[in-house]
Amino acid sequence: MAKCARLDAASFRLWLAFFPSLLRRRLLQAVACGAYLHRGRRGSCGGAGFNAAEQQPRRTRPGGSERLVELLRAESSDDSGSDEASDDETRRKVESFEELRRVVGWLQLDGHIAGEDRREAAAAEVRRLAKDDPEARETLAMLGAVPPLVGMLDSDDPDLHIAALYALLNLGIGNELNKAAIVKAGAVHKMLNLIESDSSALVSEAIVANFLGLSALDSNKLIIGASGAIPILLSAFRSPDTSPIAKQDAIRALFNLSIASVNLPLLVDAGLVPALLEVVGDMAVSERVLALLSNLVAAGEGRRALSRSADAFAILVDVLGWSDAIACQEKAAYILMVMAHKCHTDRAAMLEAGVVSALLELTLLGTPLAQKRASRLLEILTVDKGKRVSEKGGRSGVPAVSAPLCGGASEASRAEAEAKEGMSDERRAVVELVQQSLQTNMLRIVRRANLPQDFAPSERLQALTAISTTKSLPF
């Protein structure tokens, strides 16, 4: 401690030039040193300035405050040529620091002595100070604001719960150290106990918002996932009484948890897959729902749950046609591509849902990413279809191919016949499948373009389609 008292201002300026981010730590050390010189037996500055018996914050003696002013003046004099401006800046920083220290002091007082109203007001002040000031968040946490705020969750006062929850929420904004400290202080389990005992919608929404913020930190994902918070979040998402903002917070928190692979089985076991499929059509959450499904199908449990869900492929194929929601198209194409690649038994269900025509339209009108995914999925499905048709023809002894397309000029038919000469049965089946899909897709495009119902492509276009069918797609 004597070393702190002998700190020279000039050497501090040199030290500060290399380590500016540690200024606040030095300030706290200086205050602690000054307080220690007069109190001797005090070992920490978090609650040293408060005497519970006096029911008032204990004032810091001149030694600590004067030392703080000296250090702040040394910092500001490097960047300011005016002593008056330097003094004003120093005074402002001292006042700000003293305000933060005073607020934390009230938080740390015992509730029976300070009164719940005063602690609630202190928590509300922390919420205000931390809302838009990153430095205040860091300083408040360093002064010891987190433990008393977490301890307030054990109170029986709902208003104190709300004040503490939103103060913790603001302390964690953009600060990973604070998020880790909040979880380490036991906030997760206290929040779960609170949401089970308190049916207040305001408390539930505040807890969901905290889980959203805390789950953004990778080290917290495992703790929150294993704590039993997933069913709580899913219940909040599905409840008709939950506000739209809280629904968004819940689905975003679940998405954060799904990034950790160890949480995927827990999410699936909670019944998340069918719950998500039910709300795919809700445009307010559809993109986030599909993003979450994209993470879930990365695990075998998620793929099996999707396969077992009724109308899952019909729902996803319908999303492929949402031309006004391109992000949803891309995510639906990804989910179907993963399912087709990993689950061979699901390919027939996709074909029955009409996925081929939707994919062909996507290869023409979709974004580059959607086109790439649609082309890859078409490749998987057409090769699988060709194999099955070839196997069927081999068993009957007759090459099995699809019926020829109706219409078309004789030149197109001759060109098509010449192109098919020498093809294997498998390749011929693929060509026939793609031609039929192109024909269906062309009719859909005509309807969407509001062209006359009797519109028919020219003979030259039909011939070009017949010749270049297998060359038009990047297989």
TrEMBL record:
<feature type="region of interest" description="Disordered">
    <location>
        <begin position="73"/>
        <end position="92"/>
    </location>
</feature>
<keyword id="KW-0732">Signal</keyword>
<feature type="repeat" description="ARM">
    <location>
        <begin position="144"/>
        <end position="186"/>
    </location>
</feature>
<dbReference type="InterPro" id="IPR011989">
    <property type="entry name" value="ARM-like"/>
</dbReference>
<feature type="domain" description="U-box">
    <location>
        <begin position="117"/>
        <end position="378"/>
    </location>
</feature>
<dbReference type="InterPro" id="IPR000225">
    <property type="entry name" value="Armadillo"/>
</dbReference>
<feature type="repeat" description="ARM">
    <location>
        <begin position="228"/>
        <end position="272"/>
    </location>
</feature>
<feature type="signal peptide">
    <location>
        <begin position="1"/>
        <end position="30"/>
    </location>
</feature>
<dbReference type="InterPro" id="IPR016024">
    <property type="entry name" value="ARM-type_fold"/>
</dbReference>
<feature type="compositionally biased region" description="Acidic residues">
    <location>
        <begin position="77"/>
        <end position="87"/>
    </location>
</feature>
<dbReference type="Pfam" id="PF25598">
    <property type="entry name" value="ARM_PUB"/>
</dbReference>
<protein>
    <recommendedName>
        <fullName>U-box domain-containing protein</fullName>
    </recommendedName>
</protein>
<dbReference type="InterPro" id="IPR058678">
    <property type="entry name" value="ARM_PUB"/>
</dbReference>
